[in-house]
Structure formats: structure tokens, C-alpha cells
Design a protein that fits this description.
This protein has helices at residues 15-30, 37-43, 48-54, 58-72, 87-92, 109-116, 123-145, 151-172, 178-192. The protein has 197 residues and is mostly helical.
Length: 197
């Protein structure tokens, strides 16, 4: 007797994308360490075999998730590469509140991931550090283009404000908390940049 094998709804092609989408939802709502691989497979939905074919370890999945976020432009750093916005406005948008659908307020995913993987030599922590250093380079390039004579120092100050505001927004559950840091950033920019002609 022939048996007919049916594929459960949602399974099949696109497994990797479904895994990353499921991981993003779960990591955002309950954190990385609180999310198990079996839970990701169930949420995707994919078999555990498919999950481990795409991501051998949880660290592999977390790094892929962070890479996906970085390439999407949906992180704090994403606005810095938008050439349709003037450089000063790009910097100030680091302090804007996230889109309403991004509840609960999670802060910076790279800082969150580094906190959950505290070993500085781990792949996750290393990738998070790389993104935070990239953020400084992007801001330094923007303020250099704007005529700042000490771009790295100013960039460090601005990203420290942005990261601090994102962290406090998460802890306080206040998506609009960045307004305080934005006001401080405007003062820093005013004093560090030449007056427009």
C-alpha cells in the first residue's frame, strides 16, 4: 500500500528565513538566553533537523540574526548610511523613538546580545562589538564631512549618548526616552562643528 507523505503547513522552502523570523520575534519578546532552539523550531515551523542544518549552534543562529538586523537597516546604526538624509539629521535620528510596532522597547540588539553573551571572545559578543565600533566609524565619517576637527572624540560622545538612551529606554519602557539624549547631542554638535555660513 502506498503512503502519501504530506508536508505540514508552513514547512518546505524558505526554512532559513522562517527560522530567522521566528528567532527575531522570540528574541525580541523574551530575550536570547530564554529562547531555546526547540522553541525556535516550533515557532518557525521547521524540524529540528532543518534548524540544525542551517544553524549548527545557538551562537550561529544569534550571529545570523544580528547580521540580518544589521543588513535590514532597522537598528540604530541603520540611519547612518541613508544618503537621502543630510549628515546632521542622520546623527540626530539616532535618538528617535522606534516604530510603534517594535514593542516592547528592547534597546539596542547588539548591546542586548553582548550582555547575554558576556565572554568577549564568543562569536556573538565579537560581532556585537564589531557593530558598535562600526557605529563610531560611521558617525566619525559624518562629522568629518561636516567639518569637525576632532571627529573620533565627538563620534564616541554621540554614540555613547545613543547607546545610553537606547538602554535606558529599554529599562524604563519608554520608547521616546531618546529625546533627552537628542537635546544633549544637539549641544555637542553645535559646539564641535563650525558655524554654517
Amino acid at each position: 500500500m502506498d503512503t502519501v507523505t504530506t508536508t505540514p503547513r508552513g514547512r518546505g522552502r524558505g526554512g532559513r528565513e522562517r527560522i530567522l523570523a521566528a528567532a527575531a520575534r522570540l528574541f525580541a519578546t523574551q530575550g536570547i538566553n530564554a529562547t531555546g532552539m526547540e522553541q525556535v523550531a516550533e515557532e518557525a515551523p521547521v524540524s529540528k533537523r532543518t534548524l540544525y542544518t542551517h544553524f549548527r549552534t545557538k551562537s550561529d543562529l544569534v550571529v545570523a540574526h544580528l547580521q540580518d538586523l544589521a543588513s535590514s537597516g532597522a537598528t540604530l546604526e541603520g540611519v547612518l548610511t541613508r544618503e537621502d538624509i543630510p549628515p546632521r539629521e542622520r546623527i540626530l535620528r539616532l535618538f528617535d523613538q522606534p516604530a510603534p510596532e517594535q514593542a516592547p522597547v528592547r534597546g539596542c540588539p547588539f548591546i542586548d546580545a553582548a550582555a547575554e553573551f558576556p565572554d568577549p571572545d564568543s562569536a556573538v559578543h565579537s560581532y556585537a562589538r564589531e557593530q558598535k565600533l562600526r557605529m563610531v566609524r560611521l558617525v566619525a565619517a559624518l562629522v568629518t564631512d561636516m567639518g569637525c576637527r576632532q571627529p573620533v572624540a565627538l563620534a564616541e560622545q554621540l554614540v555613547t549618548l545613543a547607546d545610553g538612551a537606547a538602554s535606558r529606554a529599554m529599562v524604563l519602557g519608554d520608547a521616546d526616552y531618546g529625546r533627552h539624549a537628542r537635546a544633549a547631542a544637539e549641544v555637542l554638535l553645535k559646539h564641535a562643528l563650525p558655524e554654517p555660513n
